[in-house]
Structures are given as C-alpha cells and as structure tokens.
Amino acid sequence: MTPRTPTPGQDQSEVFRGESPQPKGSPSAKGSEKGIVRRSVPAFVAGEELADLAEHDERIVVLTADLASANRLNDFAQRHPDRFFNVGIAEKNMISAAAGMASTGLMPFVGTFASFASLLGYEQIRTDCAYPGMPVRILAHHSGISLGYYGSSHHALEDLAAMRVVADLTVACATDANQLRAMLRASLDLSGPLYLRLGRGRDPEVYADVPSNFRFGVAARLRDGAHATIIATGSEVHPALEAAEILAKQGIDVGVIDMATIKPLDLEAVREAGEGGVIVTVEEHSIIGGLGGAIAEALADMRIPAMLKRHGIHDEYVEIGPPAGLYAHYRLDSSGIANVVREFLDELA
Amino acid sequence: MVRLETLRLSRIAGAGHYSGTFSAAELLATLYYHRLRLDPTTPDWPDRDRFILSKGHAAIGLYPILADLGYFDAAWLESYTRLGSRFGDHPDMRKIPGIDFSSGSLGHGLSIGLGMALAGRVTKHDYRTYVMVGDGELAEGQVWEAAMAAGHFRTSRLVCVVDRNRLGIDGPTEDVMTQEPIEERFTAFGWACQRINGHDIAAVLGAFGALPDVDHGPPQLIVADTVKGRGVARMENDVSWHVGNLGPEDYEAVRAELMAGLS
Question: Would you call B114 and A93 a contact, using CB atoms and an 8 Å cutoff?
C-alpha cells in the first residue's frame, strides 16, 4: 500500500493549506435546503417508544454508555428505572453485559454513538451477540458524518461494512422517527441480534405515520421512475426523494427505494430495480461494503447486467465542518444527489 | 477425572490445552460437584447458578464434568474437535447442553457474568453467577470495565474466580505483564476478596461457603493460587505445555502418573 498524499489541485490539498472546504454542489449547504418544506420531527424517540413497549413486554431492558441525555434513552430511564443501566463510558462491557442479560431471556436495547458501538464493540457484537444468537439490539446513533465537526473519531463510515459480514446479525437503518418506531416494534419478534443504525435525531420525516407494514428484510418503493432508481438507506432516503423531485423538474424520471434493511437484503427489490437498467445507491457511509457493496454483490449474484453507481463517502476521512456543510460538500444532500444521478445518466448516454 | 479426560480428549484432537486445565481441575470439580445450584435434566432452569468459563481454553476439562453430571451422553465426547463435533477447543452454548455462555475470546466473561447478575436482579431470581478467568486474562482492559461496573452496581451475586497459575503462553505472568497485587486492584474497584490454594479442596469449599447470600453488596473475588500443569511432573510450571501433544509412550506414562495420584 502506498500512503495517500494530497495531490495539488484537488479539493483536499486546498483544505490542507488551511482553507475551508467549498461545497461541490451548488448552491451552498444553507441554500440547498431553501424552498423545501421540512417538518421537524425529533427522531430520538427510541427511549419513549421502548418505555411504551416495556409496559407490556417484560423482556425489555435498556443500557447506555454515558449518553442517556444525547440519545434520549433517559425517557426510558425515567419510567423504568429498574430496567435501565448506565454503564459509563465502557462500550465493550456494555455490549457483553447485554449479551449476558439476553442469555437469561431479557431483550436488551443498547444505545451509543455508531462509531463506538461498531468499532469499539465490534468483537463483542460478533462474538457475544451474533455467534451465540443473543437478541441484543444495538441502537447505533449519530451514524455516518452526522456529528460533523466532531471529526473522524466520531464518524461511522465503516459500520455497515463491518456489520454486514457478521453472520446471523440483522442490519438496518432507520430513516425517520416513524420508521424507527416501526422497527423497534418489529424487533420484539426478531430472533437474534440487530444492529440498528440511527441518525442524529434531527432527521426529517419520510413516513407521515408509523408504517404498519414494516418488516425487516422488505424494502419500500417510495417512488417509481423510468430512467433510474435511487436505492437509499437511513438518512439519505429523504434527500433522495428531494433529488427525485429536482430531477423530475429537469425531465428525468427517477424512482426511489428505501432499503431500510441492509441484511438480509430485499433481493426482489434489487432485481426489480436492476431490471430497470440504472441504479444509484446513496448512503451516509463508505461506498465500500455498505449498501452499495451489498447491491453490487446482489446484482452480480443474480447476473443482472444493470449499470450501478455507488454514492457515499469515497474511501476517505471527511473534512471538518457542520453536518449540513459536509452533506453539501460530499454531495449527499438533495442537489448533490441529483447532480450525481444526472452525471451518471449523461455518462451512460 | 478432569485431568484423565483432558488427557484422553487431547489424544483424540492431537493436541490440547493441558496445563491451564490441570491448574483449574479442583476448582471446576468443586464448583460442579459441590457448589453450583444445577439441574442437569433442565439445563435452562431459570433459577440455576450460572458458570462462565471465561478462560474458554480449559473447556476440555469442563466437558467431561458436564457429561458425568448427565447434561449429555458421554459418548458424544468421542467426537471432540472432529469435523461437525459439538465440542471444540472453546465451548459453544448453542451446541452443548450445560454451557451457560460461549467463550474463547479472553476478557469478555466477566462482563457477560455482570449482565447475568444484573438480569437476576431485574427478573427477581437469586442465582449466583460464577466467572472463571485466567490470570493472564486480567491484562484485558474489558475485565476492568466489568470490575468497575460490578463494584458500581454492587452485584454481590457475581463471583469471579481467578485461576492464578502464574504462567501465560510466553512465560511467567509477572514477566509478560504484571498482575499483582490482584486483590488490591479489585478491592479498589469495590470487590470483596479471598485468596486460597486452588488445589486444596477444603480451602476451595471454604471460600465458596464464605460467599454472602445477599444482593447489593460487594462483588466477590476468589484468587486461587494454582500450579500450571498440576498433577503431571513434567508439565508443572513448564510454559511449553500450555498447548501440547503427548506421544503414545508419554501418554501412558502420564496416565499412570495421574492414576497414581488418584489412589
């Protein structure tokens, strides 16, 4: 391996000289959200939802690692103090202890930042949760680059890739508060462990109500389109829908699939999209090994000769910046996604 | 019996973790035959005491005990390490009745035991959870995360037994990574500590007998001073027998030595 060095003339090198990153997409990050009506729905509803579910399900216990106020799991703690454990900043101990609890018949929900849950706790998820089949639910919040200027230590761009190779682990990404509620409810009937990837808690609404038909492993087609299909997951579903609106005004007809479950993957949804000919995957994750990787593998396995563009973070550590600025810079906002799709279609034309 | 079966199963596998199993033989036997609240006919009995062999490489000494207690047919052990066997070098709870948790990766067991102890509090069961760790394993940082949390939550039904045989894979533990003072370290985390000779069954029984029958007190540590390879002269305190294999003649000689030790 040769070390990566900044190449003069690239955006990176400009930043290394101490300049601020300029958004690649246009207009600016702030401007890109103008004109789009967003209902602000706090997405950290897990504590509240689990507290409700725990009224009728004695298996539910909740653990966190000194983040009960950040992830609002204190909403659960207030109502069920005897079933809540704050173990301090010790993620490995938390996940293994949750596995021990699960072995007695409990169903532990464990919340911490995605970067720490997935990387610090990886072996504990593999060896103590998945290998023995313990029904631990990892609530991996503040995933992707949603912690913005906290920097790469707090970003989770590898977690889907890491989790996807763990046998017997269900891997899913919640896109908004309503879907999260549906996932938490569905998880009560899920055997084995679950890695549930959450955003920053400020995620705009995609689903107007709690989807009553949610099932792990089943994708939702949110929009049909003849020219291409965007397959997005988690935080990128909403901007993907906005991108489809932008493209529609330009005469480009793009469908959108919410691939909420990364594993097991909805192969029929992938087949259907692949038979349309053009797929763009969008994820707040490395383009390696996550949603895009999963779709590429599925298309190859099913021998579907579709044109595929994987969009996300392109194998790099991201710049410092507020989340909105980063989404614009890395073209993960609506206008950026629209540009990526249009450029891909232009390449193919 | 633990040592003889370890010998026999290692021959089936072609290699075995002899010496770290021999150091724990009396501890395992005393726990299973005299201490743990068990019902081998109901391996998932909710009120049973839990045992986690965090030093999972000593499982070769635990399997024969579980067979002897009736958790499964002793004939199953003939498949030890063979393709498709239930029994590998480290124990798998999904394959072996009586194994309360899978282990193998050092440093996890005390956390898992902590979870079981806290779960007993939630579900209102008064079982105890015993975790056996190796002394070299104490170098794993997660052990201290668990020790800290157990002290914080005052899980006095959690018992950590340290097999203090003083040898790791690369040599004496104190040369590889200093472990002493073990009791002072755990005491600082809020544990109550005992130190005993781990080959003296009366002392082991005494330590277990002294455990308080209450919740919400100091978690309980028992440091058992042991001899790695105990019972076989050529293996005692010899680092090279952590994993090994005996030739046919040596096998018979060691077997005879162990049989003589029984009489």
Answer: yes
Give the pLDDT score at A39.
Answer: 41
Helix, strand or coil for residue A83? Answer: helix
| Amino acid letter for position A183 | M
Contact A227, A345 (CB under 8 A): yes
If you compute the radius of gyration of chain A from its CA atoms, what whole number of angstroms results? 20
Least Cα separation, residue A90 to chain B (angstroms): 6
Domain boundaries, chain A: 46-197, 217-348
Tell me which chain B residues have a C-beta less than 8 angstroms from the C-beta of A83: 122
Q: What pLDDT, on a 0 to 100 scale, did the predictor assign at position A238?
A: 97
B118 → closest Cβ in A85, A99, A123: A85
Total CB pairs under 8 A between chain A and B = 96
Which residue's structure tokens are 């999972």? Answer: B56
The full set of domains in chain B, from first to last, is 2-262 (3.40.50.970)
Q: Does the predicted interface ipTM exceed a cut of 0.85?
A: yes
Q: Say yes or no: do domains A46-197 and A217-348 share a fold.
A: yes
Q: Which CATH class is domain A217-348?
A: alpha beta
Report the first-to-last Cα separation within chain A, whole angstroms: 36
Interface with B, mutate which of A96, A107, A136 (most B CBs under 10 A) = A96
Q: For A90-110, how does the pLDDT look when each residue is reduced to its tens digit (9 = 90+)?
A: 999 999 999 999 999 999 999
CATH 3.40.50.970 assigned to domain A46-197? The reply is yes
Q: What span, in angstroms and rounded, lies between the C-alpha atoms of B200 and B205?
A: 9
Residue A71's region, left for phi above 0, alpha for psi from -120 to 50, else beta, is alpha
Residue of B46, B115, B153 with shortest CB distance to A96: B115
Percent composition of chain A: helix, strand, coil (DSSP 3-state, to 5): 40, 20, 45
**pLDDT tens string A216-233:** 999 999 999 999 999 999
Q: What is the b/e burial string over B55-74, where b = at least 16 CB atoms within 10 angstroms of the residue's CB?
A: bbbbbbbbbbbbbbbebbee
Query: What's the confidence (pLDDT) of residue A9?
Result: 32
Q: What is the arrangement of strands in the sheet containing A137-141, beginning at the earlier edge strand?
A: A84-86, A60-64, A107-113, A137-141, A194-197, A170-173, A261-263
Res B156 pLDDT > 60: yes
